[in-house]
Amino acid sequence: MRSNLLILSILFTLSITTSAQSPSYAEQVQALQDDARVKAAIEYIDKNQDGILREWIAITEINAPSKQEQERAKFIESLLRKHKLDIRYDSAGNLIATRKGTGGGPVAVFDAHMDTVFQPGLKIKATVRDGRVYAPGIGDDTRNIEALLATIRALDAAKVKTKGDLVFLFTTDEEAGMTGAKQYTQDNKGKVDYYIALDGGYEGFTYAGIGINWYRHHFIGPGGHTRSRTPPYSATLPMARAIARIYELRVPTNPSSNLNIGMLGGSEVPNAKAADAWFSLDLRSTSNEVMADLEKKIAAILDEEAKRAGMTVKTDVISSSPAAVLPGNRESHLVKMAEAVHRAMGFDPPIGNAGSNNSSAALLQGISSISTGAGPCSDAHALTENCEIEPLYRGIKKILLLELALAGLVQSGQD
């Protein structure tokens, strides 16, 4: 008994000693902020605000619809070529620039997507007024592309070295299914320690991803002329009835869930009864069980309305991504360090589990991941999209601090 008590006493003493010797996350971040090289990198951002703004606008004015990012990618590559980086493209068209560490540290990937939602051929011209910059795509996701480029320059200017590799990943096709991020995370599973998707957000971050399923539901009938006696109905009638019923479904707010019907289609001319009437469905939830339940109810409605009109139903799955929840991620090193960085930058960060971006691709591959952003913006996906200018510089500093906190700063005299 005395022996057991002695062992317990020793273990307790060791735990206290270890705790005392291990700095907290807040202390680790504070130590970074106090480092002269980090201060120099932060100062570089302050001194180069005008150049950052000009480059941000220049990238934005290169339109880059999903799957048509090549021109923007080449421009970003030309900027990256000015620095000591390993640069390559992968099979999905992702532009990958690695800033090699000295060794012995984790690999941290920082992702900003290159694509936008706007139509090919759109001429974009940014305008600046009242402390904001206005242009389609200025926020989503160009602010974060520029944030990564600015941190690269700041790290180089201050001669900062990290233990682990920093991978700057400029992805394709985020807006149309995250295929770029999916390809990268599949190719590099087991090689990446932390994956930070820079997209929406500023003051806080998310550690899990909302499930997103997109469908196109068709009602199929024989069609006909407006004056034809048969068939009695256009396929638009059961479609309309189904849409009305779907919008009456109870969509829970906890867990966070959403339902939207955003696109409709029918006949090609006014004087035809539609033989194929369709609508899109965007279904989202942080619970895969909720999504399955809603899908079941919607399928029943579609079947009932089709039979009622003597027609059939066809469903196309446009894309499907389950809720991305990595067990233990909320209490992970990445999340705790990200929270400490946000607090060190003066934020009281909201921390959520309903991210809707490339972070989900990483989480679904078992990679610890969060999503955040470099600045506050409004009217995403609209021609009136705009961002506040001054907060971006603070956001860039936040991203830089997070890069160093994750990859590890090489101590002075060891580089």
Folded structure, characterized:
The chain has 415 residues and is α+β, with helices and mostly antiparallel strands. The chain has 12 helices and 19 strands. It has helices spanning 2-21, 25-34, 36-47, 49-60, 70-80, 142-157, 179-188, 236-246, 288-309, 333-344, 359-364, 390-407, and strands at 86-89, 95-99, 108-113, 127-129, 132-134, 166-171, 194-198, 205-206, 211-220, 224-225, 257-260, 264-265, 272-273, 276-285, 312-321, 351-352, 369-372, 377-378, 386-388.
Strand tally = 19
Helix content: 25-40%
Helix-strand category: alpha+beta
Morphology call: elongated
Strand content: 15-25%
- State the end-to-end distance: 52 Å
Number of helices: 12
Mean of the pLDDT scores?
Answer: 94
The main sheet orders its strands as: 1-2-6-3-7-17
- Rg on CA atoms, Å: 25 Å
Largest sheet: 6 strands, mixed
Task: Return residue spans where pLDDT drops below 50 for at least 5 consecutive residues.
Answer: 14-19
